[in-house]
Write a structure and sequence with these properties.
Strand content of chain A: 25-35%
CATH superfamily of the largest domain in chain A: ACT domain
Oligomer: homotetramer
Helix content of chain A: 25-40%
Order of helices and strands of chain A: EHHEHEEHEEEHHEHEHEEEHEEHEH
CATH topology of the largest domain in chain A: Alpha-Beta Plaits
CATH architecture of the largest domain in chain A: 2-Layer Sandwich
Number of domains of chain A: 3
Largest sheet of chain A: 6 strands, mixed
Distance between the termini of chain A: 57 Å
Shape of chain A: elongated
CATH class of the largest domain in chain A: Alpha Beta
Radius of gyration of chain A: 22 Å
Structural class of chain A: alpha/beta
Low-confidence stretches of chain A: none
Amino acid sequence: MSNAMRQIAYLGPSGSFSEAALRASNVFQAGGVDPVPAKSVLHALDSVRNGEVAAALVPIENSIEGSVAITLDELASGKRLVIISEVVLPVEFSLLVRPGTKLSDIHTISTHPHAQAQVRNWLSANLPDADVIPSMSTSAAAAALMGENPAFDAAIGQALNSEIYGLEILADQIGDSSDAYTRFVIVALPGDLPEPSGADKTTLSVFQRENHPGGLLEILTEFAVRGINLTRLESRPTKKTLGDYYFSVDFEGHVNDLRVEEALMGLHRVCLDIRFLGSYPRHDGRKPVVRAGVTDTDFETAQAWLDKLKGT
Amino acid sequence: MSNAMRQIAYLGPSGSFSEAALRASNVFQAGGVDPVPAKSVLHALDSVRNGEVAAALVPIENSIEGSVAITLDELASGKRLVIISEVVLPVEFSLLVRPGTKLSDIHTISTHPHAQAQVRNWLSANLPDADVIPSMSTSAAAAALMGENPAFDAAIGQALNSEIYGLEILADQIGDSSDAYTRFVIVALPGDLPEPSGADKTTLSVFQRENHPGGLLEILTEFAVRGINLTRLESRPTKKTLGDYYFSVDFEGHVNDLRVEEALMGLHRVCLDIRFLGSYPRHDGRKPVVRAGVTDTDFETAQAWLDKLKGT
Amino acid sequence: MSNAMRQIAYLGPSGSFSEAALRASNVFQAGGVDPVPAKSVLHALDSVRNGEVAAALVPIENSIEGSVAITLDELASGKRLVIISEVVLPVEFSLLVRPGTKLSDIHTISTHPHAQAQVRNWLSANLPDADVIPSMSTSAAAAALMGENPAFDAAIGQALNSEIYGLEILADQIGDSSDAYTRFVIVALPGDLPEPSGADKTTLSVFQRENHPGGLLEILTEFAVRGINLTRLESRPTKKTLGDYYFSVDFEGHVNDLRVEEALMGLHRVCLDIRFLGSYPRHDGRKPVVRAGVTDTDFETAQAWLDKLKGT
Amino acid sequence: MSNAMRQIAYLGPSGSFSEAALRASNVFQAGGVDPVPAKSVLHALDSVRNGEVAAALVPIENSIEGSVAITLDELASGKRLVIISEVVLPVEFSLLVRPGTKLSDIHTISTHPHAQAQVRNWLSANLPDADVIPSMSTSAAAAALMGENPAFDAAIGQALNSEIYGLEILADQIGDSSDAYTRFVIVALPGDLPEPSGADKTTLSVFQRENHPGGLLEILTEFAVRGINLTRLESRPTKKTLGDYYFSVDFEGHVNDLRVEEALMGLHRVCLDIRFLGSYPRHDGRKPVVRAGVTDTDFETAQAWLDKLKGT
């Protein structure tokens, strides 16, 4: 590896979904990236914060299981990081075994609980009596299966795991939802804010001033009045008391868009705190439909009108 | 009159409510003002637009009869004028007669229809059989009463009318509502925008892009999201077709307030047109209650936060 | 007149716009109506309240001058009346003279101030030096012109006036706005609520609990959440103090529509008072566009779902 | 166990947080309950749906880690269940070992990832080099520790685990957040709707008609206009495509409250689907503050007013 390579951490081990996502990212494909496995989401993020790596790719959302709480919460607190890219991968599961194992040999399976949930139907139909042992990740289960005296007979994971660990694929595409996806984000220290691509998203953590009736309505109105479309909203406990929440929000647009600027400032004023977690190109390149009245031109025209009015 | 005097037109004739209002205004009391009667609201406003006078005082609202449509509509179209001051006068009516007339002599009375409406109870009780002839103003009725062969026996108007025209007050304070008020505004060509006093109002004419369901809600939300309190709202026909309206709006705050600036630009973006009719001190000096999040400091703090975020 | 005839009062005198409107109404054309002139809007409404007549037609709105304040205010207070029909007439003005009068003979003209405003351009071009004397109505001016020693040389009114009073039309269609309209309503005592026609409007007077920031937004939200489209909104002083308003509102729909029922009850809960002034067919028969979710079927389906849920 | 006992399933094994929660519930304390451990949330819910047990207690939310996705999603689909009670337990963690083990003997620890996250600080300070192996539950880790050849030296779990499995508590109250709580719900087949207690919550799954800008604002407005206070809101993927969400919502009030009835019907009309998941007493007995205009009395008064108006 040349010194000029940029190290980017991913949730390991090698062969994980996260590595596949990193390799599929536009950041990797631009070249010069050295992927580095991390033990956990926390390790990956900490290595960015500490300056050990240039960036980190972590899972943030899964069409089956929803948000990855640890990612949302770690980004919402501690030293601020910003998302510079997102990657979306289809989820495909395989039943992995040590070479020679047959379906009838399988009594115990290990996999990540999320993966288990996604192959529930296949397991009920094909291995209804198998015990399932949870693992920290599908890669970890695969690795353990090739280790000494594994405590289980099979692992459920990605096909990529089979290559890496020398496992055999006994059944392919066993996931229930053929259109399941996982979304990953690449985060870096602030300063790497990407230029607007014309099809961007922005992510925020929004902390209410207090939990009052209509508080969320107030927050959503700050977006609506500037014609901004939310793509994800989630209340997350603030880790203080039950019922005290912050909101994790994704919306269409870039911080350089004037409607986004004004909405951010509006939120800053009505909220206790607001954390900007980056503006970055959408994975699918879909441009937002911006209603009349909130384009940059509309904002500039209104400003010019006001300036003239005030004689400034 | 010295050339240094500023001429300010008012809805005449001499002795009218409007003259009394002008004399009570802070503009007059600052000195150097030469009051000039105008035949009508139109004449008064045109004389400002033509540069014949420095400003004009016209009635805009009456607690009994509501808005003065002609004033609202004339300010909403034509060459733009701005309100630089407001004056509020209590409405007090008297029964005026030629010297020597007794109550039993009165069979016909002349007054402005608005004044008539305000003394309805007194008339029912004291002169139930009298015919009432409408006049263009209470002053005009008083003047005509002292003219040759008046067509009526009494006029209803202000006490001030009696001094000017040599009339006698036969009954005083005959108005039904003791707390009735008339609001007047002094308008000038743009350029005379008063400095913020800390207790200001702003007036607008707002033209919707089209008359659609929820259109007014959209307009009001632009105010609400910036914590701006409306003090008057009125739909007025645009003089095009039945059902096509513009809105005449008063609200608390000065165009120099950052929340007002942002709301004005927001309205400019969502509306077909918006006419700024001035920011001026409230007649009663009542300061607005500005909620947390929309003070100038809040706006400046949010801007500084955004600037820092963007590294600008 | 047969005793079986229903007497309906109108703002007289005979030949007035109001009479023309009454004769154009579907109520009149259904037959059995005996039109009765009233001296004023007040007289007309009082005669309904007293049971002297079955109904009264009064002007409520004019595309040029806006709402007729006296009508709105009289309907908003006193014994409750309901609107059972609306009529819209185009406004057409003529210059009326005593037979033989020429344009060059005209130095003084009488007309109602509203009519004067509507022929301003014609007067400027054709009789720029004529004095205009205000009258209580265009009919009154016409009548006075044929009286003894009229104080003016011409009247501006409707062509109908000429037939009734034996006047000559010196100039026809002299109004500035060719598309000007006046809207009239026929009011009766409650009990005559018309059946839904499928293209109805409803009129309310809405009194706020107190004048607070966002109060009007709250009221409009009660309509918006049930998909109801306002067609007119006006703040009117409550005749108590300056700045204390009620709202006069027209909207699409009939009180029998379930979305209207729920909105009315919602307003009743959040407002100090709400006065129902009738549901009646639109003059133009235009059916409202009702969005998905607020049709009667939607309301009934939701109720059935809730009943089943609760096991009732 | 008598046949008269009601079986209630909980997320086992015996000694789990869930069992402790069940024993703390008002349902258990009312007597006649036979707690039955279930292997998973799915097993517990299925046993209710199949009629094997009368009810099931499952975790739904944790102040540290947020919602329990599997519980929300399982309640949002399949045969409908309703929440009849909620229980909130403080989270307290202990380091559990086989008798005789010292801190210096510990190199590998097993616990549930949620528990691991909650003792992060204690681990960093006291066992910085220990490897942590994820388990399906804290109980499972405790049980395995007492099994043959455990793969780890300690477990992190509740004190209750120690009694059940014969483990020793080496360190007590090692959780980072002293005010952490877990919320559990007891669910049953519909039909067991509890009577209003005066301090109730209601839970819904709300499915948008389509993902459109302002869609969530529309949903929140249905609550806000009836003065209903949300206590939890979460977007959850519908398991169809990335970016297609439903909302899991808790709010104050009981389905028998008239404001709740109207809001539910409003949501039913504007949403694709809405699933009612029960009204039940709040664990803390805190009564909602109901604003003027939305009490049952306000609803009844408005209905009576409307009925009188319509003559029904």
